Amino acid sequence: MPAVKGVLPVFQFDNSYARLPDRFFASVYPEPVEGPKLLKFNAELAEELGVEADFSDPARLAAFLAGNVVPPGAMPIAMAYAGHQFGNFVPQLGDGRAILLGEVVDRNGKRRDIQLKGAGPTPYSRRGDGRAALGPVLREYIVSEAMNALGVPATRALAAVATGEQVYRETVEQGAVFVRVAASHVRIGTFQFFAARGDNDGIKLLADYVIERHYPELKTTDNPYLALLQGVAGRQADLIARWMGIGFIHGVMNTDNMTISGETIDFGPCAFLDEYDPMKVFSSIDQGGRYAYRNQPGIGQWNIARLAECLLPLLDEDEEKAVEAANAVLKAFGERFQKEWIGVFRAKIGLATEADGDGDLIQALLAAMHEGQADFTLAFRRLCGAAAGTEGDELFLSSFSHPAKAREWLELWGTRLDAEPQSPTERAKTMRSVNPAVIPRNHKVQEALSAANYGDFSFFERLLEALEKPFEERPEFSGYMQPPKPEEQVKQTFCGT
Ligand code: AMP
Ligand code: MG
User: Fold this and answer.
1) pLDDT of residue 392
2) What keywords is this UniProt entry annotated with (predicted)?
């Protein structure tokens, strides 16, 4: 479509999902909001998407991004999906407060969804108002961008817009729209939607669609549907290993919050570990600790099993063979995760080679961190200094309330490092490229959200800046590298839906 002059921003839409059969979605227009006001626009991402936007007219930009004006070429839809929420199957969920405007092919040739989250009610809203509150919108903005800067696949933030309207949650809050960019919004729950209806044609159409979009290299394999299941399992195993490496707790790993593309999505009540505790849970709604830090790989595998169930009719005509093939994928998920996890943590402790016993060495450090209540991010960052020999071991050990075990561990580590080819300087440099100095610490996110609720966006802006280069220790951002003081510690997070 040619660029339309004077109507900005211009997205070069090329919608494919909206061309699938009607039962895949509901066509629905965003509900205009009273007073759209641009809070944040990601110009760099807009550039990558090939969006032409006129920043000199933020009011016009805000009207588009809040959904008040639907840009030419958009085919707004709410996607249908189902899902297991905390283990319970809900046959119909769907985008209840998100509207997919359309897709663009970015400057790298990658197809990306542009979605407005909080853009008004849809046929899938159930009892919800279709809106989003300011706090959760800014939280998603911060964490999306942080994850990407940390090198962990996640959806992106294009903009946050205030609606000028109130939303009613536990208290009255300011409304906002989040403009989300994703490789796609197809979830495990999308497959479950068709499986729950016995709609095998729907499952096949969807599988063909996602193979074309996310796994085109699998088209020519002997069994593309089995290869798809293996592909999703592999990407999710890798993704969760990456989460574990940065102390990320998604918080709500329902099957409708797990993508087929392998991007992190819908991390409403997410949080990052402060002190290392494998059973840590932050989400107020996760009473049983189902989605605790340590449970994430197991839940990932459980979710893949739900996807496998949907795909069974496509895997093999012989049901027994289909089940056998699916079980092999689940087993492979566990092995792949384990391999990736060891890879992630080997790099974190500066090992360039593999040796038997590395897994035990890593576990011993984690056990010492647990016992010594060491801050996960800071302890690993300080270990880089210990590797270089410059800061010595003492700074690292000062992260532990009881350093005895950590001190013993340094001995074991030192012996293991004798077998390594890298020089201490090289090792420290590599370690600093995988152990972040800055993460979106819960108390800093909280601080930014609280100030924004009072109209002060300076903390939000500054936090985003700090998170742009997470592997650098920039003195002006040293406050973002410190663990919370006891009174600053965030104990619980909320979905904010
Ligand atoms: P989430 O917990 O954000 O992954 O959402 C779970 C389901 O609830 C999805 O189907 C959402 O679209 C829906 N939902 C969440 N919040 C709202 C809301 N305020 N209005 C309508 N639907 C919602
Ligand atoms: Mg969701």
Assistant:
1) 78
2) ATP-binding, Magnesium, Manganese, Metal-binding, Nucleotide-binding, Nucleotidyltransferase, Transferase
What HEC string does the chain produce? CCCCCCCCCECCECCCHHHCCHHHEEECCCCCCCCCEEEEECHHHHHHHCCECCCCCHHHHHHHHCCCCCCCCCCCEEECCCEEECCEEECCCCCCCEEEEEEEECCCCCEEEEEEECCCCCCCCCCCCCCEEHHHHHHHHHHHHHHHHCCCCECEEEEEEEEEEEEECCCEEEEEEEEEEECCCCEHHHHHHHHHCCCHHHHHHHHHHHHHHHCHHHCCCCCHHHHHHHHHHHHHHHHHHHHHHHCEECCCCCHHHEECCCCECCCCCCEECCECCCCCCCECCCCCCCCCHHHHHHHHHHHHHHHHHHHHHHHCCCHHHHHHHHHHHHHHHHHHHHHHHHHHHHHHCCCCCCCCCHHHHHHHHHHHHHHCCCEHHHHHHHHHHHHHCCCCCHHHHCCCCCCHHHHHHHHHHHHHHCCCCCCHHHHHHHHHCCCCCCCCCHHHHHHHHHHHHCCCCHHHHHHHHHHHCCCCCCHHHHHHCCCCCHHHCCCCECCCC
The active-site residue, picked from 95, 256, 375, 393, is 256
Nearest ligand, measured from the Cα of 97: 1
Q: Under a CB-based contact definition with an 8 Å cutoff, are residues 151 and 467 in contact?
A: no
pLDDT of 261 higher than 70: yes
Mean pLDDT taken over the chain: 95
Rounded mean pLDDT of 480-489? Answer: 96
Nearest CA to ligand 1 atom 1: 266
Q: Which pTM value belongs to this model?
A: 0.97
Q: Is 156 in the pocket of ligand 1 (CB under 6 A)?
A: no
In angstroms, the CA 145 to CA 158 distance is 10
Task: Using the mean position of ligand 2's atoms as its centre, give its distance from the Cα of residue 255 in Å.
Answer: 9
> 439, 438, 459: which is closest to 40 by C-alpha?
459
Ligand closest to the CA atom of residue 268: 1
For 406-447, how does the pLDDT look when each residue is reduced to its tens digit (9 = 90+)?
999 999 999 999 999 999 999 999 999 999 999 999 999 999
Cβ–ligand 1 distance for 496 under 6 Å, the answer: no
Q: Based on the residue annotation, tell me whether 256 is a catalytic residue of this protein.
A: yes
